[in-house]
Amino acid sequence: FSFLDFFLDLLPARNGEEFTEQFLLEVVDILFSYIKKTYDRKSKVLDFHHQHQLLEGLEGFSLELSDQPQPLEQILVDCRDTLKYGVKTGHPRYFNQLSSGLDIIGLAGEWLTATANTNMFTYEIAPVFIAMEDILLKKMHEITGWGETEADGVFSPGGTISNLYSVIVARYKRFPEIKTKGMTALPDITLFASEHSHYSVKKAAAVLGIGTDNVIAVKCDERGKMIPYELEANILKAKRQGRVPLYVCATAGTTVYGAFDPLANIADICKKYDLWMHVDAAWGGGLLMTRKHSFKLNGIERANSITWNPHKLMGVPLQCSAFLIHEKGLLQACNQLRAEYLFQPDKLYDVTYDTGDKTIQCGRHVDVFKLWLMWRAKGTRGFEILINKFLELAEYLYKELKARDNFELVFDGEPELTNVCFWYIPPSLRRIPRGPEQEKMLHQVAPKIKARMIEEGTTLVSYQPQGDKVNFFRMIFSNPATKKSDIDFLLEEIERLGMD
Ligand code: ABU
């Protein structure tokens, strides 16, 4: 391409085929060299720049938008630079988020999805993808232990939205008048979730006009699991206060500790008090794919609804989140508004496949194809092998941490998911006795190391405080490229960056 070639030369320009092919092959070339770098341990995870540097422009990479078109040559440079200054989330040493890795089949699925560029709201314009969503939901229902005929669901834009769906349907089930009359028609309802649950339950309460104060944080044990006795005590307390307990969110794989709430006990309590039981298995749902570890979710089959994000443990490219509900027709009844321009009842096909009216969106991205394609390519057994390997890596890290003097586990006990939480205790801090002074200093260690880590770009891991625990590192495994040697690297890197 030269500086004389512009987008107008590409299809649909007359005779634009050859030019378009050449342009797209160049784009693929850029993407492929990025993919190779992603897997190359010698390359950095990131090349960090501050926001003002990006906004001001870097070495020929300007984000400014102009009135005049830019030549294709420049567009290709823009593509290259965008990746160059981004974060390689598929790098074997990227551990920052629950979703990591770069699955080549999933990537192909995403490319195909973008090429098809359609919308999930009607069968009319997305017949194959709607059928795939149906097949995937049935498969996931079967794996969770529900009979496929009673269940329903929808793929949504992430775990937070799937959890939002759970509150929407729970509320509608008990108080269908909410749809037309709004909150004034309802009593004071109360939701329950553990103190380690994801913040999206509170977010849902805020968005839905329930209010965050009306989400009760139920106490957890040392490992971050909800204590059933505490749940029941809180339900009784809410009742005594004249409130109406409505919904419990149990978590299967908490964000920080990777804890599994005791689902069967929680199901008993929900049954006793007639509460909606939702399981947020956004993170831990992947364990359902493995015969070795799926017992950790025993009781999930008794849930009314489930969030399960294949974009986490199953490695599907972002975004891919399933909201599953154990009652056919409820999603539709709750959300349906019958927009006449889109959901005409007199179409030539079975309009129950116009799934758009079950959702709170209008337009909906195709998130199912990449998951379907990966499932075809790996089979259920392929996911099982991958996920079992993540658990083995977590166990390896746990043992390494126990064996090393400079590290301390936040809680002891073999990992149940791939989360391993730990402090790095620099030699200077080890000389100070445990107590408020040491805690205060320890609180600053992880952020300091993380800042150096970002500047050097060699690896990336997250940190946070939790309850009364000062800042600690949270390691997770969900990247098929990661090996034990990367764990050794991370620990050595933390020690190097954490030098006093
Ligand atoms: N939605 C939870 C994601 C949190 C994380 O990746 O750390």
From TrEMBL:
Spell out which residues are annotated as carrying N6-(pyridoxal phosphate)lysine.
K312
Q: Which SUPFAM superfamilies match?
A: PLP-dependent transferases
Statement: the UniProt record of this protein carries the keyword Aminoacyl-tRNA synthetase:
no
Q: Gene3D superfamilies attached here?
A: 3.90.1150.170, Type I PLP-dependent aspartate aminotransferase-like (Major domain)
**GO cellular component annotations, sorted alphabetically?**
cytoplasm; presynaptic active zone
Per UniProt, subunit arrangement is: Homodimer.
Protein family: Belongs to the group II decarboxylase family.
Question: Which protein is depicted?
Answer: Glutamate decarboxylase 1
Q: What is the lineage of its organism?
A: Eukaryota, Metazoa, Chordata, Craniata, Vertebrata
